[in-house]
Amino acid sequence: MITGERRESALMKKDGGGQSLRRSRIAAAIFIGLFLGCVFAFFYPDGFFVSLPALHHQVASSDSEVITTSCESSERINMLKSEFVAASEKNAELKRKIRELTEKLRLAEQRKDSAQKQVMVLGEQQKAGPFGTVKGLRTNPAVVTNESVNPRLAKILSKVTVNRELIITLANSNYKEMLEVWFTNIKRVGITNYLVFALDEEIFGFCQSNNVPVYKRDPDEVKKDSDSSFESIARTGGNHAVSGLKFKILREFLQLGYSVLLSDVDIIYLQNPFEHLYRDSDVESMTDGHDNMTAYGYNDVFDEPKMGWARYAHTMRIWVYNSGFFYIRPTIPSIELLDRVTGTLARENAWDQAVFNEELFYPSHPGYEGLHASRRTMDFYMFMNSKVLFKTVRKDAQLRKLKPVIVHINYHPDKIERMKAVVEYYVNGKQDGLDSFPDGSD
Questions:
Q1: Is residue 326's pLDDT more than 50?
Q2: Worst-scoring range by mean pLDDT, 171-175, 243-247, 359-363?
Q3: Fewest CB within 10 A of the end CB: N or C in the chain?
Q4: Burial class, 352, CB count within 10 angstroms (exposed 0-12 / middle 13-18 / buried 19+)
Q5: Triad 347, 349, 355: Cα angle to 5°
Q6: Is the pTM of this model over 0.90?
């Protein structure tokens, strides 16, 4: 009995454990089902199968939205195009204003730079004085000496010049006879600060044999010159060709810091010209004029009757400066003048005297900037051309008593004969020494 009870009790325990396990499995299955249901409900709220009408409605709605969006996009594009055109026009206007402002700024800077340069040259800005007391300055400062441009020439000039001034002439063997008359009278007057720029070996040797200060380019200096025509003109060139070389040659003298009295060889010296210079301008030149009007300028009235009330037009005229005798100071405007003339003569077949005067007198105008060089006209009775001498002076009793500083035989081709006649009249006192010549040339 006891054994039976124990077996029954064990069976009952075993059966209770099985039921407990089944309940645990059921609970787990229910939990998993609920979990999966929540997951599918979250990801598929409308279920796995959607009804066809609902789907058709959704597609139709989508097409409508696409059409509406397409219309809206077209309108948007047109609006953006209009905005782009307006922005482009505004941008063009802004660019135009920027250009205008840039140009105004450039002009302002230019005026500022010009004013600063003027202050550097003239010193501090000054107030204008009372009426009648104001006077502008014409004398520009000398450039800084640069002996590196030609050390050999610099050494020669240091021995020849007086107060950093000298007379210079150019000559080749074509003008040997005139050159001799030229330096003979310079020596007679007592001038020591002069130099002959020899253009060939014959003139170089001729000057050395006559104890005349002379300079000639050596082969190395010739090779450095970019102008290949220089040597051929120097050796064989005529009057005008040789005359054109002087503007190129003078540049080195000015860079070395020397003031130069440029002289042609057809000039007779009767006094020392350095005692009669003003030295207040960049260029001080003799004139081709023959009286006060032509030498110093006059108001020439042009008459045009067809204009009626306005038939008379006033013009200012002056006869040209002579490029065969002028004093030039070592200033920036002076060197610019030489460069301008040299450049024009290199490009054009022009007369050097015409170009020399055009650069000195033409004012600034559209397309051209004039030279800002100060100038002075020499006294035409003291620095006399041959027209004044033979047409006027020799026929006037009072003017015949006048002794000029120089006489330039520039108006007449029979130069050597007239040069000797001038010496006879003014130096040797031969009163009829000038009488045999006509006013002009035959």
A1: yes
A2: 243-247
A3: N
A4: buried
A5: 80
A6: no
Determine which helix (DSSP H) or strand (DSSP E) holds 326, and give its type and residue range.
strand 321-328
Distance (Å, rounded) from C-alpha 234 to C-alpha 4? 158
Alpha helices in 297-430 (DSSP H): 332-347, 352-361, 386-391, 415-422
Amino acid (1-letter code) at residue 311: R
Q: Do 273 and 406 meet the contact criterion of CB atoms below 8 Å apart?
A: yes
Of 150, 146, 147, nearest to 216 (Cα)?
A: 150
Torsions phi, psi for 165 (to 5 deg): -130, 150
Interatomic CA distance for residues 287 and 380, integer angstroms: 6
CA distance 169 to 196: 5
The tens digit of pLDDT for each residue in 155-171 reads 999 999 999 999 999 99
Residue 57: alpha-carbon gap to chain centroid? 83
Task: Tell me the per-residue pLDDT of 8-31, one tens digit each, with 9 for 90 and over.
Answer: 444 344 444 455 556 667 766 676
Burial class (CB in 10 A: 0-12, 13-18, 19+), 66: exposed
